[in-house]
Write a structure and sequence with these properties.
The chain is α/β, with parallel strands linked by helices and 338 residues long. It contains eleven helices and ten strands. The protein has two domains: 167 residues, Bordetella uptake gene, domain 1 (D-Maltodextrin-Binding Protein, domain 2), CATH 3.40.190.150; 100 residues, Periplasmic binding protein-like II (D-Maltodextrin-Binding Protein, domain 2, 3-Layer(aba) Sandwich). Strands 1, 2, 3, 4, 5, 6, 7, 8, 9 and 10 form a ten-stranded mixed sheet that branches.
């Protein structure tokens, strides 16, 4: 049997030169390839959608000089507060070119809650962004007034079932992660507890301590130091599947018999869609590596947050899962934007 012969056509010089533009048209631009290869060649900007001084801002400013050392270029933090953190996210989504020099530290609310409450956000959290890595997690906790005759989650559920509508819980506001976590808790436990929104975690915790409400869902940092022995507020559980390293003695709701609820505040780093994959991969590698160090873990603990390093794909999956879950909660609870 005669072996097959694969013949490579030989172009005459005239034909070869004529075919060259078509061949190059199917390839990536040489300039773009060179630019990606030497990225970064100038300052990288991390946009924080909140005023200076918050935990996310402080953590970003702690990380920026360390990231600068690894990238070999300046890394600066730029604060763009407004519209509950969505204004900066919208601006970065539309920024051009999508080259990795401007990224945003977006909060969970802007990426997974606001899209269900405001149809005119001006951005799509999935279509307009490419995830870089998770950045930080803020544990949420269920707390109770010390005088409430319920020492744990099991007793609280029993009390709420006996007297539906008598208990109320405070959060940082309508449509917040705390609010959606509280409504999910009610749905899973088949209880009716009245939601009372406050303007921030501090006022919500103060309302519990003063007996204005019996319960609250707040971030852990706002109640740590106030829930000591003899205080007027008691922590019952974290709103997650696992305990938090920031308060390892505190059980999770899952441990307390409430499964199917895993809610926390979080921040992630995102780049505009169409940012070159090699740039995203470099940012993920450098930032996620730093977030896994003991130095960062200990420093973040002082800010009341936990590092949350992920792969780009892992953050994308987390985003899609939370978007879908919150869509159900918002619809079931009839939550509307203020």
């Amino acid at each position: 049997m005669t072996p097959a012969v694969f013949r490579i056509p030989v172009l005459r010089r005239r034909h070869a030169l004529g075919a060259l533009p078509a061949l190059l048209a199917g390839a990536l631009p040489i300039g773009a390839l060179a630019q990606e290869a030497r990225w970064p060649s100038r300052t990288v900007r991390i946009v924080v959608p909140f005023a200076p001084g918050g935990s996310a801002d402080v953590a970003a400013r702690f990380l920026a000089p360390r990231l600068s050392e690894r990238l070999g270029q300046p890394v600066i933090v730029e604060n763009r507060p407004g519209a509950g953190g969505t204004l900066a996210v919208q601006q970065v989504a539309k920024s051009t070119p999508a080259d990795g020099y401007t990224i945003v530290l977006a909060a969970a609310g802007a990426m997974t809650i606001s899209p269900h409450l405001n149809p005119n956000l001006g951005y799509d959290p999935v279509a307009d962004f490419v995830p870089i890595t998770g950045f930080a997690r803020i544990p949420l906790v269920l707390v109770a007034y010390a005088g409430l005759p319920a020492q744990n989650v099991k007793e609280l559920i029993a009390l709420a079932k006996r007297e539906p509508g008598r208990l109320s819980y405070a959060t940082t506001g309508n449509g917040s992660a705390m609010h959606l976590g509280g409504e999910t808790f009610k749905a899973i436990t088949d209880t009716f507890v009245v939601h009372i929104p406050y303007r921030g975690s501090g006022p919500a915790v103060a309302a519990v301590m003063g007996g204005e409400v019996q319960l609250a869902v707040v971030d852990l940092t706002s109640v740590m130091g106030r829930a000591d022995a003899g205080s007027r507020v008691r922590m019952l559980a974290t709103l997650g599947r696992e305990r938090t390293s920031l308060a390892p003695q505190l059980p999770s709701l899952h441990e307390s018999g409430v499964s199917g609820l895993d809610v926390s505040g979080w921040f992630g780093l995102f780049a505009p869609a169409r940012t070159p994959a090699p740039v995203v991969e470099r940012l993920n590698s450098e930032i996620a590596t730093m977030l896994r160090t003991d130095e960062v873990r200990e420093r973040f603990k002082g800010f009341g947050i936990e590092p949350m390093p992920t792969t780009s794909a892992g953050l994308a999956q987390h985003l899609r899962t939370e978007l879908a879950g919150y869509a159900v909660v918002v619809k079931r609870a009839g939550i509307k934007a203020d």
